[in-house]
Please model this.
Amino acid sequence: MLQGSSSTVTVLGKRKTRGNLVLHLSGASGTDSASEYELQPTAGPSRAPILINGKVVAGTTRRYQCTYDGCDKAYTKPSRLEEHERSHTGLRPYVCATCSKSYLRETHLQAHNRSHLPKSDRPFTCEEPDCDKRFWTVQHLKAHQDVIHKGEKPFKCTAADCIAAFLKHHQLRSHLASEHAPAGTKPYQCEHPGCTKSFATNQKLHTHAKVHGEKRYTCVHPSCISSTEFYTTWTALQHHIRTGHPPTCPHDSCGGKAFGSQKGLRAHLKLHEQREVEAAVLLDDDASSADEEEQPLKRRRGGEIGRDWKCEEEGCTKDFKSKKALATHHAITHLGRRDFVCPEPTCGRAFGYKHLLQRHAARLHRTDPSGGEEGEGQHADVEQPQAAASGIDAMTGKAYAERSGGRRLALACPHPEFKNLKVTLPELSDGEERWKDTEPCEYVFGRAYDLRRHVRAIHGIILDKEAVDTWAKMYRV
Model:
């Protein structure tokens, strides 16, 4: 307070005012004035620009602005911003203890809780004759008087040349949908350009409106966090995840093997677990076998752990790791199904497994059963077998010679010339000459293992395994 000889001046400050106001009070000197009390605004200092969400904004106190795209709401308090953001996230933390309804704000819950109180607790009563309505707020009382007692209809139709008016907003929506929209239109209509969908409730319309958001979905994979790519539909996001981030095996031994679904990855990881368990079991078995000097049992492909699907046919001891493998075994072994038929018109042989058909076609027909061309290294001048071999041909070896001539990339027996092969020759008796006037062997084989066994059994020569494998690779090139 400033005191002078002629007047007293007091400066009043008030929150949320646009400028400072100065109150001039007349003194005892009796100075004439148009008004004894006069309020005069004083020029206050201009507001300095502030930084809001990375942008410089001048002349505002609403420094807490919503960061959601398309929303320009701003608030002076962070608590107000937090309440507003719940409208975007859908979080409703305030729940009524009586009826379990939830709300975005605590004030909304407090207003709702009054609905569970008796009408006699409402403080505002309508004073119109024969009306005993009571209300919680003055606004509700005034709206009641204007609509019910004065006949006002605040909700007027917005369509051209329509003078209809209604007491309630939902009545106006129903009118617009039934009178000024195509047949079958529901009250809540989507306002997005080009969208003709409508809904029975506002909640369904709000849910539908998210479809039109360009940044509705985004990938949360670590490699996509820094990208700004968004997806308008859930289907588009899932397609991106399947193609861009397929389920991958985390084990180093698989080299990043990918799968088409999470189900396939889970089944694959189960195999890793079974292998680890089986490795531990086999380690113990090998140690016990070494102590007892027993020959270890032959290990089956895929291991022994997890073979829970057992064949129930009488006399069959087969077991499998999946229901599908068991069904395939039962259909082929016990029912005799042969679904893979050789496409050669003169052959007609059928097989239970596809790989058997492929092996048959490669050895006898030199073509891929799917219709592919002949591979490199094949001899086009070899004739195709035209008919099944007779018993005489089978006994004399003629049928075998014909079949072996058409084998794809077959290994011919190198006897008697063993070039580039490390051999162990049998000892000769006195005066015996080695392979004098010996004709070349006509046997051919598909595997180097079979070739070594043949040479050892028929020709009495022991071939080195590594040398035969190397020779076989060079032979097939």
